[in-house]
Design a protein that fits this description.
The chain is mainly α. It is built from twelve helices and three strands.
Length: 299
């Protein structure tokens, strides 16, 4: 089973999945493998794994206090893994085919208000080359709803500052083209004028570079952005991803079409994007209660 897990992870890597997703898959499957060892005297035999074993695994996780959100993720990982096994004739029957994925309440993603975003974007010191770079990064994430990994991998030729468009290769290696706002284009232009100050032999055509001239990794980007976010966030729970959430929420609040936002975010399913409508509905409800003649009970 361990060999098959390693092979599965390699195939997922070739699909362009993020390091974070691959790490989660590997951790989930290694944990499943260790659990299944109690059913076998020697090595775990893939063909002998039954649906009851998988249900027992999920039950064990639940009894040990794991949330339904965690159980759902692990169940999805198992479904993907055993689908791969079935496709490659490693199992005669898929034990995860009819495995139920536990339901859980989706948490509304935290987002900044528009004034908070303005404050966040104004923090970087434009008298510093790092401030100019960081301002361009912040503006681009908020302007185009980019993921941190997408910013990390972005190359100079992907952004067209004349047409104000950026071509992104996102999850699953899928390409999308997203508009770039006027302020973001201006910030990137300003950075490109001083990018040479970051360049080294290892820079290549990567847009945003570290002080050593290498590509900024997703972890380095998060660390940079978190230093600014902590100055603006009034409560806990905000992260660099909250800037992307703010992009989607503010578009919908100003009347953008949900499917257009889906395309710009690079979501495969509309249901993933629909979570942002709950945030906007709060404002709609306030307007309704204030304006509709029958929204309140009369004494």
């Amino acid at each position: 089973m361990q060999t098959t897990i390693d092979q599965f992870i390699k195939t997922q890597q070739s699909r362009g999945l993020s390091v974070h997703t691959l790490t989660a898959y590997k951790r989930d499957l290694d944990q499943l493998h260790n659990f299944l060892k109690k059913y076998f005297e020697k090595a775990v035999d893939l063909k002998e794994i039954s649906r009851l074993y998988l249900r027992d695994y999920l039950r064990d996780l639940s009894e040990n206090g794991r949330s339904n959100r965690t159980l759902a993720r692990k169940a999805t990982t198992m479904k993907n893994f055993f689908r791969y096994c079935e496709k490659n004739n490693l199992v005669s029957q898929n034990p995860a085919a009819n495995l139920k994925i536990p339901k859980f309440e989706k948490k509304l993603p935290k987002h900044f208000t528009e004034p908070e975003i303005e404050d966040l974007l104004s923090i970087p010191d434009l008298n510093s080359k790092f401030g100019i770079r960081n301002r361009a990064i912040l503006e681009l994430i908020y302007s185009s709803g980019l993921r941190i990994s997408e910013v990390s991998n972005c190359k100079i030729q992907q952004i067209d500052l004349i047409e104000k468009l950026i071509k992104i290769r996102g999850k699953g290696n899928k390409e999308r083209i997203v508009p770039v706002g006027k302020d973001a284009a201006k910030a990137v232009k300003q950075f490109l004028k001083i990018r040479e100050q970051f360049v080294s032999k290892e820079s290549g055509d990567i847009l945003f570079l570290s002080k050593s001239g290498k590509k900024l990794s997703p972890d380095e980007l998060r660390e940079i952005l978190e230093r600014y976010i902590i100055l603006v966030a009034k409560t806990k729970g905000y992260s660099p991803h909250s800037i992307r959430h703010s992009f989607a929420t503010h578009l919908l609040e100003h009347g953008a079409d949900l499917r257009a936002v889906q395309e710009m975010l690079g979501h495969s399913n509309l249901s993933t994007t629909e979570i942002y409508t709950h945030l906007s509905l709060k404002d709609l409800k306030k307007v309704y209660e204030q304006a509709h003649p029958r929204s309140k009970k009369k004494d």
